[in-house]
Design a protein that fits this description.
three-stranded antiparallel beta sheet; hpI Integrase, Chain A; 2 domains; DNA polymerase, domain 1; 330 residues; mainly alpha
Length: 330
């Protein structure tokens, strides 16, 4: 039987919550987000008893995040939190108190705190022309000019790797964390089958693994890149490496894609945009929403419906075509 939290402070409760969520096998990114949001809250309200937190105090904290909180960003940007970040902070507090009230049997003060209004920004895929420009930028450095020579461009040392990265992101719809977690042995270069591993090792959101596929162009680019790798026959070696022969991570991947966008003047250039592009192009090419859900690794159709709206695909009609009860005349 659960006991009331006699004198349990927020700092101790937060530690227990994070341990509980880690044991649930949530992704490291989710745990880091929980920890950050709760630390900001703790620093703001002080280390008081968890069962004495009130609904007005929680509302005041969310208002403070919107108006007075100054995020400590690596970039030094002075901009306030985005509506999505405030919505995420609300979700963290909601999850924390749902756990706390279940564990220690006290009334949930978050029940009367409505979710902050937030509208998903429009999904903007890359155009075919933009992807072609990015691929071309993988091959050569910016054009150089000296007083004594004509303009010239040198080949980039990481050109083949970068081309393989872009085509892999575009063809599979992988998340950045999933791409960075791939090993050489996860790819069947004959069939294009890609194994996104289960659990934290695979980088999949929620720890869910799945199978995705590479087309011929992406497989060719990947083969050409690996042909120069001495460890290409080692199935446990990381698929993509940095210049220093270390496994690429989310930060270095984002820096790569961002730099290519700046070089080519392609706007809003970031890794996840390739996932959007894959999903929307897949639907526009005749793919169905249910297969897309499996390929993207979504637990629900909510985000897939968002892609369907952008792609101008009627999900209702897709369901009618796929309904077993109707098609089997039950």
């Amino acid at each position: 039987m659960n006991r009331r939290p006699s004198g349990l402070t927020l700092s101790k409760a937060i530690l227990g919550f994070l341990q509980f969520k880690t044991a649930e096998n949530l992704s490291p990114n989710t745990i880091v987000t929980y920890e950050h949001d709760l630390k900001v809250w703790l620093n703001h309200v002080g280390d008081r008893r968890i069962d004495l937190i009130t609904t007005p105090q929680l509302r005041e904290h969310l208002a403070w995040l919107r108006t007075d909180y100054k995020p400590n960003r690596f970039s030094g940007s002075p901009h306030p939190l985005s509506p999505k970040s405030i919505r995420n902070a609300w979700a963290t507090l909601s999850s924390f108190f749902t756990w706390g009230c279940t564990e220690f049997a006290f009334d949930n003060p978050m029940k009367a705190v409505p979710a902050p209004h937030y509208e998903e920004p429009p999904v903007e895929p890359f155009s075919k022309e933009e992807v072609e420009i990015l691929l071309k930028a993988c091959e050569f450095c910016k054009e150089a000019q000296t007083e004594t020579r004509r303009k010239f461009s040198m080949r980039r040392a990481t050109g083949r790797r970068d081309r393989a990265i872009i085509l892999t992101l575009l063809d599979t719809g992988l998340r950045a964390s999933e791409l960075c977690a791939l090993s050489i042995g996860d790819i069947d270069q004959k069939t294009g089958r890609v194994q996104v591993k289960h659990g934290l090792r695979g980088g999949a959101k929620g720890g869910k693994g799945r199978i995705v596929y590479l087309g011929k162009a992406a497989r060719a680019a990947l083969w050409r890149y690996l042909a120069e790798r001495e460890d290409a026959d080692n199935p446990t070696a990381a698929l993509f490496l940095t210049k220093n022969a270390r496994p690429i991570n989310k930060t270095s991947l984002r820096e790569l894609i961002t730099s290519l966008g700046e070089k080519t003047n392609v706007k809003k250039c970031y890794p996840h945009k390739f996932r959007h592009t894959f999903a929307i192009t897949y639907l526009r090419s005749g793919g169905d929403v249910f297969t897309l859900q499996a390929l993207l690794g979504h637990s629900s159709l909510e985000m897939v419906q968002h892609y369907a709206r952008v792609a101008e695909i009627d999900i209702e009609q897709a369901h009618r075509r796929a309904s077993p009860a109707d098609n089997w005349h039950l």
